[in-house]
Design goal:
21% of the residues lie in helices and 28% in strands. The protein is α+β, with helices and mostly antiparallel strands. The strands form three sheets. The protein has a six-stranded mixed sheet with strand order 3-4-2-1-14-13, with helices on one face. A six-stranded mixed sheet has the order 5-6-7-8-12-9, covered by helices on one side. Strands 10-11 form a two-stranded antiparallel sheet. Residues 71-307 form the Endonuclease/exonuclease/phosphatase domain. It holds the Pfam family Exo_endo_phos. Keywords: Endonuclease, Hydrolase, Nuclease.
Length: 317
């Protein structure tokens, strides 16, 4: 027999799960990629991504710490529904990573994590100061994994040798700095990081395909992104998953079938008007991948991060 108190907890947990499922967009009608290779990325925004009085999707009656296993379970469900080959997370507290890792490893994934900074509770509640990036792959991840500071003391890229099917690849979870025009200390940081990352990627590509996934904190038309795109004025080596989305074609070159563009991956209602932009990317080395496609999942204004789940697909060239 289930006691009344336990039944209530089950109902509360079920309610939280249903709400979070909607906000992650895992029941999107575009649930499947039509391609052979799949990729999944999410900037989680830590576990305190809200302020007092804001709407949020934590379990009713709990503080932010109550969401860690619940949100972790929903991320695992979203990944399970899509079955991506490679998964990356940004702004992930180590407690969140532990829950997600345990579940995905049980499904056959391999995992690695790097703390990008020590936050002393700024982004992670419950005394958890590790805050960083995670990388999951269906294939084994070589050790040691690589961390790249790209110019300062924080880690901006977690990379590892893994594989897509039988082919070795270099995969990275990337999080570049915000280039705040009102903060002189930020001037040029992101551009310098992007330059170093693009150079590293070109070197890796001499021997294997390269996958860069994450929050680049720049919009597609920002000049810094030319370092990655291989077309539309870019000087890089990559295609981007959502570059052929005709709903976002206003900036494409005349007559082009693709451009530096894509669906919104970040939104915030803290500004007027609300801020909406694409700053998350799934970059795939253009010489190796074809038929790229992307899908940004919008879960409404009540959600658990200021970013959206971003999924991509591709085939081998």
């Amino acid at each position: 027999m289930i006691r009344k108190g336990r039944r209530l907890r089950y109902l509360v947990a079920a309610f939280g799960a249903l709400v979070l499922t909607a906000q992650l967009g895992i029941n999107s009608p575009e649930a499947e990629a039509s391609t052979d290779l799949k990729f999944w990325h999410f900037n989680m925004c830590g576990n305190v991504c809200w302020e007092a009085g804001d709407q949020h999707n934590y379990l009713p009656g709990t503080d932010s710490r109550g969401e860690i296993p619940v949100r972790g379970a929903q991320i695992v469900e979203s990944v399970g529904n899509y079955s991506p080959d490679i998964v990356t997370l940004n702004e992930t507290c180590y407690t969140q990573y532990r829950h997600i890792r345990a579940a995905l490893v049980a499904q056959g994934y391999h995992a690695t994590y790097a703390s990008s900074s020590q936050t002393a509770g700024k982004h992670c509640d419950g005394g958890d100061t590790a805050f960083g990036m995670a990388l999951f792959s269906k294939k084994p991840i070589a050790t040691p994994r690589e961390t790249h500071n790209l110019g300062d003391t924080k880690i901006h890229a977690l990379c590892a040798d893994t594989a897509l099917g039988a082919r070795p690849v270099k995969a990275c979870s990337v999080h570049l700095s915000v280039d705040d025009p009102d903060d002189a200390q930020d001037d040029g940081k992101r551009d310098g990081q992007a330059t170093k990352l693009a150079a590293l990627a070109s070197g890796w590509h001499a021997t294997k395909p390269v996958v860069l996934m994450g929050d680049f904190n720049a919009q597609p038309f920002d000049p810094v992104m030319d370092k990655f795109y291989s077309h539309s004025g870019g000087e890089g080596i990559f295609s981007e998953a959502d570059e052929s989305d005709a709903d976002h074609s206003a900036s494409w070159p005349p007559g082009a079938a693709r451009g530096q563009s894509g669906e919104i991956t970040y939104s915030s209602s803290k500004t007027s008007p609300p801020t909406q932009k694409k700053i998350d990317y799934i970059f795939l080395s253009a010489a190796d991948f074809g038929a790229v496609e992307g899908d940004s999942l919008y879960g409404g204004e009540r959600r658990i991060s200021d970013h959206r789940v971003y999924r991509g697909g591709a085939t081998w060239q």
